[in-house]
Amino acid sequence: MRRQAPVWQAPWGDVYVTGYDLVSSSLVNRTLSHVPPVGEVAEPHSAMRDWLMYQEGAAHAALRQALQQPFVGKGAAVLRPVVADAVEELLGDAELSGDVDVVTAFTRAVPERIICRLLGVPDEDMSMIRAWSGPIRNILDAGFDDAFGDRPNPADEMSGYFVEHLRHLLAAGRMPPLLTGLPGLVDALGLKAAGRNIAFLAFAGHETTVHLIGSLLFHLAHQPAQWSALRADRGLAANAVAETLRLESPVQKICRWPLEPTAIAGHEIAKDQLVVLLIGAANRDPAQFPDASRFDLGRARQNLAFGRGAHVCIGRALAEMEGVAVLEAALGRWKSIEPVAWQWMDNSSIRGLDALTLRLTA
Ligand code: HEM
292-303 burial string, b = 16+ CB within 10 Å, else e? Predict the structure, then answer.
């Protein structure tokens, strides 16, 4: 597609954009809206419609400002010990040797535990967050209507949980690290929309990082020379994380809707026609990344895995911190990791492993 039709209209009407330059410029194209037309993504009353990523303009800017505060500046220093504790608790376990499904053992649990602690979710409620997140991931891929029709959907249920959770936090007056601005957020949005967005943060804040960590170990298990290079020079850990994000971008595609008739590379697109930006394809564009399918620790770290422009990921630093922390712990623990068996997820929006058995040798 990249070579023959970098902007391609499918027979069902949606437009797909694949090349690095075109995806990159489309991400900052203000004619392409983030707000789904009615009937797309979720029905009008769904909690998902309030999510930050589906807002535009001033409403988006104000909400983003409120949510991203703890991630910037000194905020990162507060996140680091939470990350370190979770990694130590889950990878410090002496049982982790021999053939281990690392997805079950820790790649899913580390980011889940971190986001729950950062949002003040009690450990005993973490299993509910997991139970809601899988179906939400599937809605984002397959569409809301096909999956749920009129039935209550997991995004609404998760939001309901967070509305109650926020109510308790406000009553107790003790805010967890990512919710220091909660009183202001609730004043500005009301409890319901605030709860919906914190539910979104809980989902977005781990469902992608889980796959970053799984894919990272997958590639290093397949390339012992790179594993050895990292053991010799831990300073390369951030490169390994960036290269995994490029090669196995956890967010593979992003949707936009033109506010008016427009054109991308001369291809005319109607108002409200769905435009799908294929980040995964852009990040493997050989025009941008020579020998693009090769995992290469020496490559520049710049890629589109976290998006670009006004909606660029607010959790980037946290996700990278988690990837590096798990990798450093793994490098310290295991002399070698070898692939035994794996299963990629059946999902075209989120790329990652459902299972990954590695032979871990201390
Ligand atoms: C490897 C991990 C991650 C990847 C690959 C990733 C990827 C992305 C991408 C591509 C976007 C842009 C969406 C768009 O333009 O429509 C985005 C937005 C977002 N991400 Fe992440 N993300 C990751 C981790 C996180 C974490 C850890 C958090 C929070 C703790 C987070 C919170 C968000 C939020 C709130 C947005 C919406 C921003 C906005 O619309 O202004 N993400 N992410």
Answer: beebbbebeeeb
